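FIELD: query
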Amino acid sequence: MTLDFTKGKKTRQPLKRWHWIAITFVALLSVCVFYMLSATRVVVNGTTSLPHNGYLMVTWPKMVRIDSYVAFDAPDEISDKFEHLVFIKRVVGVPGDLVTSNDGRVCVNAECRTLLPEMAANGYAALPAHVLPAGQFAAFGDASDSLDSRYAAIGTVKRSQIVAVGYPISMPHWKELGTWLGTF
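FIELD: result
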């Protein structure tokens, strides 16, 4: 006597092609959502030092290019004055670019910033002329009074200092939001 437990049961059909496509799509979508939640942040700019009100900041991969925005912690020399503050500046120089410094102006790739007299009076010296070494970037704020790479206290931004690389996103200024909500 033999026991046959499969007798009378239907055999399962193999998955059709569209099932595999749907499973693959859901898996890829899940990975993309996980990446977006773990490696990106939206930063709202409340200052006038940058031209945009919001930035999508990506923590990995950190692909730094001219005109991208980088977020970095204050250098050790001035971190006590800017505790818990992250600087966001626009990249104007990449490794191999020439930084020139003369007559109270610092220039990188024909983009120049003048040192502010009040900053110079407080001991903020100009970044000396040099060629940007590997792994270092020059970053300027877009406002004339920005504390940025034109000053030696900030200096060049090392790749290891960069917390995230940002890309502008269109969003209303926080004062506009307050007006819309009737709070200002």
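FIELD: remark
The domain at 40-181 is CATH 2.10.109.10 (Umud Fragment, subunit A).
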